[in-house]
Specification:
The chain is an alpha/beta fold and about 260 residues long. It contains 10 helices and 13 strands.
Length: about 260
């Protein structure tokens, strides 16, 4: 999720010049850009659609957002080549790079940092103050492949000589970081592992759900979720899309989208 004070960093410089792009033709097939987000679909459309439409305008080519509920679904689309560009989580990026060769196109900086964390949260009324105290309690993961929403807390349990099925009394998947936060706030579950980017965005936006929760554990910093491309993407297209992302901070429209 791209938050306030967000800019994009180029991983590789591109020599392409956007001004030389040909006008859009009605016969052009849209470029499908995947979004595997751990926020609810309504928010996904609202925030990512603006970014994707901006990219289409800059490269002068029709674009189409392809949203999937889980990281697994998006990984499969990338592997089959049905999409060439996608917003994905950091853990799927590592696995997909090893398996079929996705590459980072750009990565965001949020509030000046290209890093993010996993937060373990509980309700404010809950006396629990540490992760081990959640033993026997109900807990929400986000996605089976989520770095912050499952992999990190699972790693914590491994360091304690345990595993999720044995440690938690009840375990479920929300498939949305903001849904996990809501479930803790409403006391549907005792705790959850959520992405710091989503939690801090909701907090700054005045969400009542973050006001009703507290963070009891913060992970070390991880590399932020990137935008990736498959290796066989057309190099000219890759350069144009990369430069379009990088130009967002340099235009009034792009900065407005990033602020939102």
């Amino acid at each position: 999720m791209f938050l306030r004070s967000t800019v994009f960093l180029l991983v590789l410089l591109s020599p392409s010049v956007l001004a030389s792009s040909p006008p859009t033709s009605a016969r052009q097939e849209p470029i499908r850009i995947g979004v595997a987000s751990m926020i609810t679909p309504m928010d996904t459309v609202k925030y990512y659609q603006e970014i994707i439409e901006y990219i289409g305008e800059r490269i002068r080519h029709p674009v189409q957002m392809v949203h999937r509920r889980t990281y697994e679904e998006m990984d499969e689309l990338l592997e089959r080549g049905e999409i060439k560009i996608a917003f994905i989580c950091s853990a799927p990026y590592v696995k997909n790079r090893e398996k079929f060769g996705v590459e980072i196109l750009v990565a965001p900086k949020v509030d000046g940092s290209p890093m993010y964390r996993s937060y373990i949260i509980v309700h404010n009324d809950n006396p629990i103050q540490s992760f081990p105290e959640l033993k026997g309690r109900s807990f929400a993961f986000t996605d089976p492949r989520s770095n912050t929403g499952r992999i990190y807390p699972t790693y914590l349990l491994e360091t304690m000589g345990s595993e999720p099925a044995r440690f938690f009394g009840r375990l479920l998947y929300s498939y949305s970081h903001n849904k996990s936060i809501e479930m803790v706030a409403k006391k549907i579950v005792d705790g959850a592992a959520v992405e710091s980017l989503v939690y801090e965005y909701m907090r700054k936006s005045g969400s009542p759900y973050t006001r009703q929760t507290k963070i009891i554990k913060r992970s070390p910093p991880f590399g932020i979720p990137p935008v990736v491309v498959v290796r066989d993407i057309d190099p000219v297209l890759r350069g144009k899309v990369k430069e379009a992302f990088f130009s967002m901070r340099d235009s009034a429209k792009g900065r407005a989208i990033l602020r939102r």
